């Protein structure tokens, strides 16, 4: 569970047209001192993207976080284990399996069911375990590639790469 706010990355990407960005991302994280970004902006129109962890951003902060081990364990203890304990003699005979509907992240207001990634102010699930996995992965530039979750790169493969990781 995330119990603190932490800066993941600050990235600059030049805007080509509309919301289409150049393929090159400049990592500005090291340019942040005491909460202030100091950077000489090159010519052109740039988008600055700040990625951070926090618990206080989504629409339903009390809802389960599916990428946090402790949060998922709480669900298992509260839903699956009591059902199994009550019906354990029937599992494998009368009951072939068990499903409980866990419909969404609830990271935006409302229930429109069209909550695709890429909306402004959309919190995405995160955990310390997820960061450890990403840090150890082959995707060494994952932090600065986060910008392509919300915007498109000039080269569509760059956007697809970010959504893959």
Automatic annotation (TrEMBL):
Superkingdom: Bacteria
Protein name in the entry: Uncharacterized protein
């Amino acid at each position: 569970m995330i119990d603190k706010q932490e800066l993941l990355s600050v990235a600059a990407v030049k805007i080509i047209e509309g919301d289409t960005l150049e393929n090159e991302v400049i990592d500005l994280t090291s340019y942040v001192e005491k909460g202030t970004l100091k950077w000489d902006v090159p010519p052109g129109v740039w988008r600055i993207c700040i990625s951070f962890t926090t618990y206080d951003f989504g629409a339903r902060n009390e809802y389960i976080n599916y990428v946090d081990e402790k949060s998922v364990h709480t669900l298992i203890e509260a839903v699956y284990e009591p059902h199994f304990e009550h019906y354990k003699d029937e599992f494998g005979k009368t009951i072939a399996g068990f499903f409980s509907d866990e419909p969404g992240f609830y990271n935006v207001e409302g229930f429109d069911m069209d909550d695709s990634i890429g909306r402004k102010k959309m919190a995405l699930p995160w955990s310390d375990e997820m960061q450890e996995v990403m840090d150890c992965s082959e995707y060494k530039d994952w932090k600065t590639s986060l910008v392509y979750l919300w915007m498109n790169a000039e080269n569509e493969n760059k956007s697809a790469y970010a959504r893959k990781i």
